[in-house]
């Protein structure tokens, strides 16, 4: 992968087109990352902005996140028909049909117990139990990162090849190998209202790199939000605030006349 060459200057971002299919990460892209997943502050204008974008792009807008569908709907006030949660393990298509994964909750029983004990012994860490995935956050205890990674690698090996550890921003997530954002974007792109459009993905984390790669393969635009670093994204926006400003301009530019 090569470093993203573009800047946050609107002129260096792709020219808005009415045939886009827009995919958006959530934490670090639409909202600032918080110390605890439940402590985020959702900009009050965000649900309205997402509805405007959905209107402008004839429904071809989806949030693709590590959060659950239930959590996304709660934070976004049900603004979008199309959502993907837990990196694609949970999905709701543009017509409102919900696709749930095979329940692997029981497979995580031992890992859940071990990680709970780890959190008890490492103040500042936090275990987010998504049922079909376990996320160990260490933002509040950065010195525990190496120990957390080693423990999750051990639990992943015990579970076998159908599971892996996904690193993120001050977290590690243990989940099935079938779930990544590139796969879910490709799935959306085979369905209405996304099919036949040019995919555009905004994301900020290593968990978004699979989506960037998929979008590039499909001839779309991958946009990285946040600190510049090696990425498959070909465009760059400096921070969440500038991402929201760009999306607002996008909605205004593409909004159909009434």
Which keywords apply here?
2 domains, eight-stranded mixed beta sheet, four-stranded antiparallel beta sheet, Alpha-Beta Plaits, 14 strands, Rossmann fold, alpha/beta, 258 residues, globular
CATH hierarchy, class of the largest domain: Alpha Beta
General shape? globular
Poorly predicted sequence stretches spanning 5 or more consecutive residues = 1-11
The secondary-structure element order is EEHEHEEEHEEHEEHEHEEEH
Give a count of the beta strands, DSSP E runs of length 2 or more: 14
Average pLDDT figure: 89
Give the radius of gyration: 18 Å
Distance between the ends? 43 Å
Number of helices: 7
Tell me the structural class: alpha/beta
CATH topology of the largest domain: Rossmann fold
CATH superfamily of the largest domain: HAD superfamily/HAD-like
Amount of helix: 25-40%
What summary fits the major beta sheet?
8 strands, mixed
Beta-strand content bin: 15-25%
Which CATH-level-2 architecture of the largest domain? 3-Layer(aba) Sandwich
Strand order of the largest sheet: 6-5-4-3-2-11-12-14
Count of separate structural domains: 2
């Amino acid at each position: 992968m090569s470093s993203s060459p573009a800047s946050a200057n609107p002129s260096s971002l792709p020219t808005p087109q009415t045939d886009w299919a827009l995919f958006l990460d959530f934490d670090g892209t639409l909202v600032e990352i918080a110390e605890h997943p439940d402590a985020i502050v959702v900009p009050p204008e965000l649900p309205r902005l997402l509805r405007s974008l959905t209107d402008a792009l004839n429904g071809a807008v989806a949030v693709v996140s590590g959060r659950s569908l239930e959590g996304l709907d709660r934070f976004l006030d049900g603004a979008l028909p199309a959502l993907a949660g837990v990196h694609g393990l949970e999905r709701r298509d543009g017509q409102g049909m919900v696709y749930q994964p095979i329940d692997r909750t029981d497979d995580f029983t031992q890992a859940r117990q071990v990680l709970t004990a780890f959190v008890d012994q490492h103040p500042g860490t936090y275990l987010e139990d998504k049922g079909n995935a376990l996320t160990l956050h260490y933002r509040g205890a950065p010195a525990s990162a190496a120990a957390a990674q080693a423990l999750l690698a051990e639990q992943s090996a015990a579970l076998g090849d159908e599971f892996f550890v996904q690193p993120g921003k001050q977290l590690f997530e243990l989940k099935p190998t079938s779930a990544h954002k590139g796969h879910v974007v490709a799935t959306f792109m085979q369905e209405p209202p996304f099919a036949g459009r040019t995919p555009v993905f905004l994301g900020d984390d290593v968990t978004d790199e699979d989506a960037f790669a998929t979008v590039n393969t499909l001839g779309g635009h991958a946009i990285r939000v946040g600190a510049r670093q090696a990425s498959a994204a070909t465009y760059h926006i400096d921070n969440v605030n500038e991402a929201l400003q760009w999306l607002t301009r996008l909605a205004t530019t593409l909004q159909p006349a009434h």
